[in-house]
Amino acid sequence: MGCIASSEKGVDGRRKKLKKPKSWKNGEPITRAQLKRMREEFWDTAPHYGGQKEIWDALRAAAEADIGLAQAIVDSAGVIVTSEDLSTCYDERGAKYDLPKYVLSEPTNILKDN
Predict the structure, then answer these.
(1) Cα 38 to chain centroid, rounded
(2) Which domain of life is it from (predicted)?
(3) Whole-prediction pTM value?
(4) Domain for residue 24, yes or no?
(5) Is residue 78 part of a domain?
C-alpha cells in the first residue's frame, strides 16, 4: 500500500514466486522437539504482534506446506510477499508480518530426538 517494497509483483510485472528457504544454523544444536516448541510458541503469540489472525493462520498453513501449496495459500489469502522465502509479508491493508527462519525451515545442526 503506497510503497514499492509492498508490491506483490516484481519489476517485470509478475507475481513473486515463493522459493524454498535457505538453510540456517542455530547458535547451538537443537532437537526436533525443541524446534517444534519454538514454532508452537511463535504461532501462539504471532497474532499479538499485530495484523489479522486470518493472515497469521494463512501464513502458518503456507509455512507448513510444500512450495506449490504455499504459493496457492498466500495468493488466495491476498498476502503480499516481499521476500521469496516468505519471511516478510504484508496484508492488503499494509500490516507487516515477519516470520522467523525457524518456522520456515529446519536448521542444519538439528539433533536426533532420543
Answers:
(1) 14
(2) Eukaryota
(3) 0.83
(4) no
(5) yes
Strand-pair category, 88-90 with 80-81 = antiparallel
Q: Are 55 and 91 in contact (CB under 8 A)?
A: yes
Based on the structure, what is the number of domains in the chain?
1
Query: What is the torsional sign of CA 21, 27, 33, 35?
Result: negative
Give the domain extent around 64: 31-111
Q: What is the pLDDT of residues 15-51, one digit of tens each?
A: 578 988 888 899 999 999 999 999 999 999 999 989 9
Buried b (16+ CB within 10 A) or exposed e, 20-54: ebeeeebeeebeeebbeeebeebbeebeeeebeee
Count other C-beta atoms under 10 Å from residue 11's C-beta. 7
Q: What angle do CA 4, 101, 114 make, to 5 degrees?
A: 170
The CATH code of the domain that includes 36 is 1.20.225.20
Task: Give 58's DSSP letter.
Answer: H
Q: What is the mean pLDDT of the chain?
A: 86
